[in-house]
Amino acid sequence: MLTVKEATPESFDGVDVALISASSEVSLALAPEAVKRGVLVIDDGSAYRMEPSVPLIVPEVNGEDVEWQSGIISIPNCTTTPLVMALAALRQRAKISSVTVSTYQSVTGTGAAARAELLAQSRDMLNGQELSPPTQYPHRIAFNLLPQVDDFVDDDYTKEELKMLNESRKILGDPGLRLAATCVRVPVEISHCESVSVEFDRPMSVDVAREALAEFPGIMLMDRPGESVYPMPSNSADEDEVMVGRVRRDLAHENGIILWLAADNLRKGAALNALQIMDECVKRDCVRPRVAAAV
């Protein structure tokens, strides 16, 4: 039986590593208390992502950055993680000039209540019943697409779209990266998909791009379009890898490559990434040993 208790500052006494997956308010309140007690905090919220003193980690991309942490490590947004893995693979072969990405994000990115609402709306619509007013999104999500993920802010971009820009720049160590995102919520339970157009400073062949992606840790190349083999929510859910396919020339840009990716937002987009960060910290001796535990 798993015992669940309310987290308090004292909960961290004797703890080596704390994984926090809660609201920003909770993270801001509890993470400093954990650090005071010598605990390494891996935070899955947005509270610390853009703090200059907090590394933002995807282990396959910038795992070495855990070494300069001062007690808190942040996990990227669930759409950023698979994107930067693909970009990190490709930039090994040519410098990236710009990125344009459109996302197709499942409802579990919002939470369990959004999943329940999708299922309830779908059931009611299929049974010809009147729908209750939506509570999780501005409009119904069943049999619909919403070109809004989070609130609108500067220049009519959403917070989610700006997260992808700013987090990608930080993780890749490229503050001048040109990236524009359009984030869309779709009526799917699990897995986010992304259509990604990457422009380079010189031409890159499709074969070179495929090779770079196939060799990158954590990426599974699933690219046999003639056999209708490509990433989808249905084959990426419950999987650990970021799946990439539909790799092809960008006919609108001489030095461009277009690809399609899918990843389980609950695994690599969140929980798996947290565990991999913890493993990286252990391998790099970033977890403070507890003398008392050995007595």
From TrEMBL:
Listed EC numbers: 1.2.1.11
Top EC class, one word: oxidoreductase
Catalysed reactions, as listed in the record: L-aspartate 4-semialdehyde + phosphate + NADP(+) = 4-phospho-L-aspartate + NADPH + H(+)
CDD domains on file: ASADH_C_bac_euk_like
Keywords: Amino-acid biosynthesis, Diaminopimelate biosynthesis, Lysine biosynthesis, Methionine biosynthesis, NADP, Oxidoreductase, Threonine biosynthesis
InterPro entries named among the record's database cross-references: Asp_semialdehyde_DH_beta (IPR005986), NAD(P)-bd_dom_sf (IPR036291), Semialdehyde_DH_NAD-bd (IPR000534), Semialdhyde_DH_dimer_dom (IPR012280)
Gene3D superfamilies: Dihydrodipicolinate Reductase, domain 2, NAD(P)-binding Rossmann-like Domain
Domain of life the protein comes from: Eukaryota
Active site: 78, 192
GO molecular function, a single term: aspartate-semialdehyde dehydrogenase activity
Pfam families: Semialdhyde_dh, Semialdhyde_dhC
Segments forming domain Semialdehyde dehydrogenase NAD-binding: 2-69
Biological process, per Gene Ontology: diaminopimelate biosynthetic process; isoleucine biosynthetic process; lysine biosynthetic process via diaminopimelate; methionine biosynthetic process; threonine biosynthetic process
Subunit and partners: Homodimer.
Family per record: Belongs to the aspartate-semialdehyde dehydrogenase family.
Protein name, entry field: aspartate-semialdehyde dehydrogenase
UniProt source species: Geodia barretti (Barrett's horny sponge)
